[in-house]
Design a protein that fits this description.
By secondary structure, the chain is α+β, with helices and mostly antiparallel strands. It has one domain: Thiol Ester Dehydrase, Chain A (Roll), CATH 3.10.129. The protein is about 35% helix and about 30% strand. A five-stranded antiparallel sheet has the order 1-3-4-5-2, with helices on both faces. Strand 4 and strand 5 form a beta hairpin. The longest helix is centred in the last third of the chain and has 21 residues. The chain is globular and about 50 Å long.
Length: about 170
């Protein structure tokens, strides 16, 4: 049996001063760059072989259909951040990836993003169904402990913040 794939990869990144606004906060548009670059790194590092065969065989790719992004605390120049990504939902032709930006310790949520993506034929951009073998791979990567609700983004942000707060309190008690 193949090993269980890493469902929630994480990378660290330093916030660059040129990416910040005059207030010394990471520019809102740059959050997307940081998140999408981290997800690309996660896919290349952990799943590239699996996904490459499907993409090349079908001349297909996922394209972003929608983002939900909540900015909670500013990321500042020179700050080290952790960016986590995970698949939280998929169906026949779509998927939703959640990405979290946390502080260096991983205990405070700075921002949370849901990217909804559609599987499409290239170059036309027409929607495709995921092949069965890809559905199996997505099932292995899906973080099924997260109950996805398309209208539940704000509730998810609240839940993650509460979980991290509980972890901080438990760490202080030790």
């Amino acid at each position: 049996m193949p090993p269980t794939p890493l469902r929630t990869p994480e990378t660290r990144h330093r916030v660059h001063s040129q990416d910040c606004d005059p207030l010394g906060h990471l520019n809102n548009a740059r959050y997307l760059d940081y998140f999408l670059n981290a997800r690309e790194e996660h896919v290349l590092t952990h799943y590239a072989g699996e996904f490459d065969q499907f993409m090349q065989a079908r001349a297909a790719a996922w394209v972003i259909a929608k983002h939900h992004l909540s900015y909670l605390k500013p990321a500042r120049p020179g700050q080290q951040v952790r960016i986590l990504s995970q698949l939280i939902h998929f169906d026949n032709s779509n998927l939703v990836v959640e990405m979290q930006m946390r502080d260096e310790a991983g205990t405070r949520l700075l921002a949370l993003l849901w990217s909804e993506m559609a599987f499409v034929q290239l170059p036309a951009g027409t929607r495709l169904d995921h092949p069965d073998a890809l559905m199996d791979l997505l099932d292995a990567l899906d973080v099924d402990t997260i109950a996805y609700d398309p209208d539940g983004f704000d509730e998810r942000v609240k839940r993650v913040r509460q979980e991290l707060k509980q972890q901080r309190r438990a760490g202080d008690a030790d």
